[in-house]
What we know:
By secondary structure, the chain is of the alpha/beta class.
Amino acid sequence: MLEDRNYRIAVMPGDGTGPEVVREALKALSAVSEKDGFKVELVHYDLGGDRYLKTGEVLPGTAVDELKTFNAILLGAIGHPDVKPGILEKGLLLELRFRLDQYINLRPVILFPGVDTPLKDKGPEDIDFIVVRENTEGLYAGSGGFLRKGTPHEVAVQESVNTRMGVERCLRYAFEFCRKRNKKRKLTLCGKTNVLTFAFDLWERAFHEVARDYPDIETDYAHVDATCMWMVKNPEWFDVIVTDNMFGDIITDLGAMIQGGMGIAAGGNINPRGVSMFEPIGGSAPKYTGRNIINPLAAIGAAQMMLDHLGEEKSAARIDQAVRKVVAGDLKSLSAGQMGYSTSEVGDLVARYIQDSV
Ligand code: IPM
Ligand code: MN
């Protein structure tokens, strides 16, 4: 919490349905700031596919330095159907994660009461864990290249970069988080030590070394393929999962599905000592764009995570309660077009429950 409780937030609605869901997240933010008496100053950035198509520029030179001056960033979605895959994702989203050194990607997998999960016989008491994904290294580091590109003898190499420093700071964050969360106090390392015998050898050694500083946390290990299996079969075994960038990307889409879909899955790109960026993890959903039917709850959840991160825990809890009320009592489904309410109506409901909360 800032002493003057005056937060400067950079808002990046981005592409596709991003602007629609961010609008609703800002409604919740405004309702809760009024309720709890803090100020939010919003500065909008028009970064994304449309700007790139107009100007040819993905990320203006001064943007990163400007962004460093904010308390947090709220992002909608990046990805445009008219832009070749990779340009915006790498040039904007990954570039921001890297240059702002947001080395943690925090992704809760929580099934709210009243929400359908495709997992038979599993309920909210079974699906409640959080994935700590390393967010600046691994296969995402951009290391590798082509040899003899375009010829029959072409070679493509894409290397996974794992530094002791990068791995260790991620592991420490995960142990600390697990302790603070104070639920099962169990941290599972998700890797592939049976095949990736360099990368995950480093991870595993660092994991056990760091674990010595956290005797109160139970440690566990699962290969990534087995992690996918357990997430479906016994999700209740998990409390906190820590993993590398690529595996974290993959298992959190599976996580989103078991918690009710992309409409509810939020995440935070965290730099514990810098500027963090919060986003719904679902993407830009071009086919739903502009129709006022996309589910804004993931973006609202991102705003909640942002407030939690800023130290406004009470307000974060208020948003959490409002969202739980909406999914349990109002929405027919979490899927776009099937909620029984429009995007803006869902945002209105959340804002009203925030206003009515005690
Ligand atoms: C995510 C997304 C991104 C990733 C893409 C858009 C680069 O899938 O946030 O999970 O792979 O990290
Ligand atoms: Mn992903």
